[in-house]
Amino acid sequence: MPKLAVLYDAGQAVLSTFDLDEVLQRILAIARDYFHLPNVAILLLDKETQQLCVRSQIGWDAGKDKICLGQHDGITGAAVLKKEPVYAADVSKDPRYICAAQSTCSELAIPLMVRDEVVGVLDCQSDRVDRFDHETIELLTLFSTHASIALQNAHLYSLERQRARQLEAINIIAQQSTAVMELEDLLVRVCSVIQHAFQVPHVSLFLRDEGDLVMRAHQGELTPCTPPGGRFPVTQYPWSRIIETSGTIIEKDLSSTPESLRLFKECASRMSIPLISFGQTLGVLTLHSAQTNAFRASELQSLESVADICATSIQNAHYVERVKQLAYLDGLTGIFNRRFFELRIMEEIERARRYKGGMAVIMADIDEFKRLNDEFGHLLGDEVLRQVSSLFHQQLRKIDVVCRYGGEEFAILLTQINTAQAISIAEKLRRMVEAHPFPGVPRTVTISAGVAVFPEHGKGRDELIRAADNGLYAAKQAGRNRVCLASLVRAAASGR
Q1: What is the per-residue DSSP string for 70-85?
Q2: Which fold has domain 180-324?
Q3: CATH architecture of 336-495
Q4: Residues 88-112: tens digit of each pLDDT
Q5: Which of 203, 348, 351, 447 has the fewest CB atoms in 10 Å of its CB?
């Protein structure tokens, strides 16, 4: 076929599409069909790793189609180094040859160039010694210029599409930040949008909580190694480095890292970006992949823009949450009020029912509080209320809730707990109050408490509160300064 006809047909074929995979397949098909080559491949140069990686091939032996070579290794590497075609007429006599197919006898590597910069190599192999004559080499070299232009066009088109998706994601996240004020909803939506827009297998969000990072949301295809709400010390790598430097970390190969540190079982690489607002690191946005070396520094700009918007959104949600909390705080003691208790008891009952766990209600009351007020005045009485509230708050776990139910009465929600543990906690609180020296009060201050446990003493809000109240009443009747379990009250009632 005349040279011009070959070049015209080849140019029309490879320049008629912007899809990278389709461009690659057309280049290989032309090399195979027009030049009758059994083995042909395109290797693209990865600028970050400085490796030539097989992107598409025809005729290579099984297992060779995924190899990556150093940019100066083999005959392909020599073509990159020289920036001109390198021909091995007999590969058995060329020490540079790296076997890709057992049938190969001669190899021609032609660099794919864009503005004097190598972007890849067109590698042509034949099962005949000295298969490529001068005219064929010249024709394939001219064809490679069309192939280079087509690859560059496809690359630019892919970048534009990627940028469009990323800009859309940034816009959606920015809109979500103003439309969604509930923190948990915001975190879940952000993970979902990022996973879709950046086409990554998994996305997770961690927020700081004192000395830990807590996984608050995640979305994707990978399998978590820890349950929801998993905590990770900020002193642990890579979190320590992210917090210290306020910089992004790309971990290229986690395949030999323990599962507990990979976070997701299939995770082989990840990118972690700090969430920074007004100079404060609020948490970490992490992208995970089941492939090694899946993340590039070139993706950082868009992702860091997303992280900045996320940080601002999270900060705003924190402010809204704080305002809501103020509405649920008791003005005198600073602990939660009855309104918050009514909200949380329904949530905890539902959680205990769903996960078949235990929860308990303690109703506690300061003994003879009216007499204390009458003897020492309301100002001292208020101080006693504050100090009792503080004792409760200090002794309970973070997951538990203590509220001022009204007057001198307190309501406490204990989660993930059984009957014996609930009674033990109530007794501990009683002893702490009894032993505490209240300044200005010359006598011992005590409390009485009633304990009710889900589901033994009730499966609904009203039943549990009534049972705990009955326990409190029994404690008062029995002489005060004691704890009574609701079941004891029922046993006594049935015995009358």
Answers
A1: ETTSHHHHHHHHHTS-
A2: Beta-Lactamase (3.30.450)
A3: 2-Layer Sandwich (3.30)
A4: 999 999 999 998 889 999 999 999 9
A5: 351
